[in-house]
Amino acid sequence: MRTPARRARLAPRFLSLMVVSLVLSSCGTSATDIANDLFMRYRANGSLIEYSLPAGLLTAVTNTTGQSNAAITGNDGGATYIAMTVWDVVPITTGTYAGFTGTTGAVGAIIGYQDAAGINFASGVTAPEATIVITEFSATHVAGTFFGVLQESGEPDVVITEGSFRTARIN
Q: What is the rounded distance in angstroms from the CA atom of residue 50 to the CA atom of residue 47?
């Protein structure tokens, strides 16, 4: 279960990811070049959710000395969205990112999800409840798979399965 303090720490991360996605998508990106190949699909508690709107399928990468991350978002402008972040102390590339630790720099994966009722769920910060596998990482796109168990205090868990994506890389 999430404590109010833990939820308060995670909420700004997911809000930041959504704001960055909306701002950058309005600036024009290389997404138009590969728009026909962009997608995100997954099952949330067995229900299939798919996104195909290019402006909502974006990845922003920050590779810096000592701390790197890739923010991967999926939405179609509707009520539901998913925001995933992979973290590492070396540059992000293809590979498996799971769990989350932060003792000597953030390493791992976090998945946030908003359901149709507007309830926000997130994977655990200390347990390996989320896995993101990046299988393609280029200057124009990022692709891979994902799954996890997402929680919100007082709500039943959301189990994400069969997740796959191909998003435009915006930087």
A: 10
Q: Identify whether the C-beta of residue 66 lies closer than 8 Å to the C-beta of residue 89.
A: yes
Write down the residue that tokens 């915006």 correspond to.
170
Q: How many CB atoms neighbour CB 116 within 10 A?
A: 11
pLDDT, tens digit, for every residue of 108-157?
Answer: 999 999 999 999 999 975 555 899 999 999 999 999 999 999 999 899 99
Other C-beta atoms closer than 10 Å to the C-beta of 120 total 19
Judge whether 168 and 31 are in contact, CB under 8 Å: yes
Residue 140 contacts residue 33 (beta carbons within 8 Å) = yes
Please state, in angstroms and rounded to a whole number, the distance separating the CA atoms of residues 88 and 159: 24
Distance CA 40, CA 87 (A): 20
Helix (H, G, I), strand (E, B) or coil at 56: helix
Structure confidence by residue, pLDDT tens digits, 15-56? 334 433 433 344 444 445 566 799 999 999 999 999 999 999
User: Amino acid letter at 21?
Assistant: S
Residue 35: strand, helix, or coil: helix
Domain boundaries of the chain, sorted by first residue? 4-169
Token pair belonging to 82? 């998913």
